[in-house]
């Protein structure tokens, strides 16, 4: 008979580290908006970010003496995961380029629902009843955050969705592909060192992004100093967050508590307001808090 277990209590340093990662991930997307607003293409940003992250994680693996072998049976799955994460990365940054950063991340935060759907479709797993109960709450919060009727904006539904529709679509595709990648990771790469999986995945993403760069006629680099700061910021913040995730967190015993990092949209909301001047209505903030709260509750509940 299976035994239930609770998520381990977090120490102060572990909790602070999780919040730091969420802050850096939120800041990464704000930095990306600066880059996009000053001439950087989405594929260029993904190539820089993923390539540097892959090299950093690979260096950590080499320094630690870890094996760099991927079992033959997992290589095809790893390539598929890399393709999905590449699509997710391109779509999420495309959403960030078109929407207020916090709204793009909130729409992306629907990925737990996509994860449950993919697990059912690909492996016949029955969704957790709790996920099914929380799903309407998350969707209500997302509808409030996106102002689906256009009431807050005063534009009406048609004109409002004419402005945000493409960005929301990109964010939802990012959520769907990320959910599928999570399911494939769980079922198709069991036992593989998480650092090696990350290095391989980021390397594949960088290679695919460079292919996209080639089709666009080459790298589209910043046209102003602030754009260079944005490109450097998104690269360093993303790479640092991933490095901490795979080197520090395991030592702190954070496994099972990573849902705390879903406060990322809240950090992004504050940073985008301070640095980009982006604001959203109070009702949208309330909807965002509902989405974030629901995702965190799903992740932190007793299992």
Automatic annotation (TrEMBL):
EamA domain sequence ranges: 17-144, 167-298
Name of the protein described by the UniProt record: EamA family transporter
Keyword annotations: Membrane, Transmembrane, Transmembrane helix
Species name: Hydrogenophaga bisanensis
Domain of life: Bacteria
One Pfam family it belongs to: EamA
The keyword Transmembrane is annotated on this UniProt entry: yes
PANTHER family according to UniProt: ACYL-MALONYL CONDENSING ENZYME-RELATED, MOBA-LIKE NTP TRANSFERASE DOMAIN-CONTAINING PROTEIN
